[in-house]
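User: Can you write out an input/output pair for a complex, sequences first and structure second?

Assistant: Here is one pair. Inputs:
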Amino acid sequence: MIRSISIGFDEAERVVVAAAVKAKAIGVPQNIAVVDAAGHLVAFRRMDGAKFLSIDIAIAKAVTAAGARKATADIMPATLPGQPGFGIQNLHGGRFTALGGGIPLVAGAAIVGAIGVSSGSVAEDIIVAEAGADAFHSSE
Amino acid sequence: MIRSISIGFDEAERVVVAAAVKAKAIGVPQNIAVVDAAGHLVAFRRMDGAKFLSIDIAIAKAVTAAGARKATADIMPATLPGQPGFGIQNLHGGRFTALGGGIPLVAGAAIVGAIGVSSGSVAEDIIVAEAGADAFHSSE
Amino acid sequence: MIRSISIGFDEAERVVVAAAVKAKAIGVPQNIAVVDAAGHLVAFRRMDGAKFLSIDIAIAKAVTAAGARKATADIMPATLPGQPGFGIQNLHGGRFTALGGGIPLVAGAAIVGAIGVSSGSVAEDIIVAEAGADAFHSSE
Amino acid sequence: MIRSISIGFDEAERVVVAAAVKAKAIGVPQNIAVVDAAGHLVAFRRMDGAKFLSIDIAIAKAVTAAGARKATADIMPATLPGQPGFGIQNLHGGRFTALGGGIPLVAGAAIVGAIGVSSGSVAEDIIVAEAGADAFHSSE
């Protein structure tokens, strides 16, 4: 049997709130998603003004970070033409993405969930996702 | 030109919270989704213990209630064999459902969003969705 | 944080083998799938002669039993025309089914996975799935 | 009329086991899938610790290797920008991939199945897939 720990709603909500505070601070309304260790959605917030087309992207970033166990931005280099991971974005019916803004949430040695953020530029998405992840990691 | 009003995050969150309070009161952890007038996700909460298989169902109920402009349970009769709507659940790639627990959020004459709830029995889902919708309508 | 236990490969394989032994005993080659508590595939076996069209059905039965936390056959009555769950099979892009042959695997109070079997009649699928589940439960 | 031969479960299982032994030897838990000549799943094993996001990728690699009749890594060059196969990964709804780690299983002049491996780096996936394929080919 495999024993595991995963993020619950209270922790997920703290991550979302911290990310939203940062998004507001930089003036970029965002879609913010948090998934558990298995990639299942736990919390989602679309700030007023966030793009509807980025809802699924935010969720995909979180799923990918939880499932690949690394920040989505760190996956990108391996997916470029000529690299071994080229084309991986086509898998999983649009649930896999190497777009920056997905970050795993870690407790001890375990990936217990992930945050995904989308609606701004990739750089803005990463800043907001990191604010959410930092809030989680500093409370561990 | 078409002017419209739609639920924002603050209103959506109040709906989610009211639904979660009711879910806790009846002892049934729920997946709770709120979409805007266009059917796009605004807020989502998976209470600890809610079924992962019901995440997408909760969202589908909200999308359907917003898009069909009626409670999902009220759509059900027309979808039975021999009725004119039989088979409509096959459309929209699993985003349309007549399962009870999706309720429109109304402001004046406008549908401004919807709530969808799933993880309990249909009866429990409806009770929780109504608690969320009531919180919204009583504040209008 | 949520602590959980889930089936590992060794347990999953024992479930598959027990099911396959029963399938052979009744002379019905089967597709046998075992998923973990989160609905992710852990082990799969297609016995020689099992129908290719039933591969995805076996997996769907396991996913549904894990996610709905009950045997798929027990879900069926609520999905009949006129019942509140009518149409639920249309959700989840073909990963939800009320066809008999999906059974949760339980350890203590936790659903730690599920088995799904498909290629025979529903009655034969249930017999084989129960053999797999029994092997797991008797070893707990 | 067309006569064909295809891998059965016993052969598929030997391939999976050989791959799992190699995966353990290099310390990388893997998802290992074997499909038959028609691209239908025959055997699947998720070793404890393998990524859930790589389950479908392992299967896609096996399907592609069986269907394209070559190792998935050998398909990659033709899929790069400027090459005639650019974009082919968008087809088949995520069941086609040029990611390395899918290898056909050959008997005489016939492709009788394929193995797909995913959860490590592409290089690790290829090593493990080759171990599975070698076990099959050396026993022919």
